[in-house]
Write a structure and sequence with these properties.
7-stranded mixed sheet, Rossmann fold, single chain, alpha/beta, 10 helices, two-stranded antiparallel ribbon, globular
Length: about 300
């Protein structure tokens, strides 16, 4: 994990429960004598992540329907720290605005980016229910002046109409849908539950997730290549376009496409969480001079 990730040493359940007593219901001592929760239980996972946000990120309100994706905080904030390193290395330290593509019902990246680095956000969402819930979270946490939420009517439009012609953002970030369809998503859930030694007869996703959050026609690869193409239509509006990429097999095809589209720099940033290795791909279309002159 990143050196600035507050969760690199695991969870201090004693401190978390003291600050969020409702979490205590889900905490137990495992066979190794350590406090933990059942990570296959969606309610336990939601309670833990709510407690983390309250204690470490000053988020006073974080409610959302149980059928929406419940993001694991350590992994989400890891992306934030990696992105900050990229921005700092590019001389982008102050007055940073980030575009969060598909913010979800939880508005998690804007909450974390604002808490950790004071970034402003433009957050987009295509699901009306998720959009309304994210706006409620923004309002109740008093962040409406630093987080602007925009509704996207066309699910094929990832960037179109979300960055206005006159706008410039330091970076975009995105956690793409992983699966091609519901069947693929359910099969992956069964595999994970089996690995946890759980009954797979009744499928319960520990991080939940609606259709629009979990799958996209053609899967992650199709989404990413649509994203790459649309970013090439807005070359001067964003310094660094970025995205999580769950499958390493997609990296090579992304690099090939980006070179054809005219990207001037392409970076692969490793995102490590315990034994799980993922990656963030970043690219820019700006020339060296345009990069140097960005803040002038």
């Amino acid at each position: 994990m990143h050196k600035h990730n507050k969760h690199s040493k695991g969870y201090d359940f004693e401190v978390l429960v003291a600050n969020s007593p409702e979490l205590e219901t889900f905490v137990f001592t495992n066979s190794h004598g350590k406090s933990t929760i059942d990570f296959a239980n969606p309610k336990a996972v939601k309670s833990l992540n709510t407690a983390l946000l309250t204690l470490y990120y000053a988020v006073s309100y974080w409610e959302f329907p149980d059928d929406h994706l419940c993001p694991p905080i350590p992994g989400r904030v890891e992306y934030i720290h990696l992105l900050n390193d990229l921005l700092v290395a590019s001389g982008l330290r102050e007055d940073v605005t980030v575009l969060d593509i598909g913010t979800g019902a939880t508005c998690i990246y804007p909450l974390l980016g604002q808490a950790e680095y004071g970034w402003r956000f433009i957050a987009t969402e295509i699901d009306k229910g998720a959009y309304k819930n994210a706006q409620k979270i923004i309002n109740k946490n008093g962040l409406d002046e630093v987080i602007t939420l925009r509704f996207q009517n066309n699910p094929q439009w990832i960037l179109n109409d979300e960055i206005l012609p006159s706008e410039r953002v330091a970076a975009s970030m995105c956690n793409p849908p992983f699966y091609k369809n519901e069947t693929e998503a359910l099969e992956e859930t069964k595999r994970k539950l089996k690995g946890l030694g759980k009954n797979t007869d009744t499928i319960v996703r520990n991080f939940s997730g609606t259709a629009q959050e979990l799958w996209y026609p053609g899967g992650e690869k199709a989404f990413l290549h649509n994203y790459l193409y649309q970013s090439s239509q807005l070359k001067k509006n964003c310094f660094w376009y970025t995205s999580l990429v769950s499958k390493k097999d997609h990296v090579k095809s992304m690099e090939t496409s980006l070179k054809k589209l005219g990207a001037t720099k392409i970076k692969k940033l490793e995102l490590s969480l315990g034994n799980k290795i993922s990656r963030v791909m970043a690219w820019t279309f700006l020339s060296d001079k345009e990069q140097r002159d960005w803040n002038s």
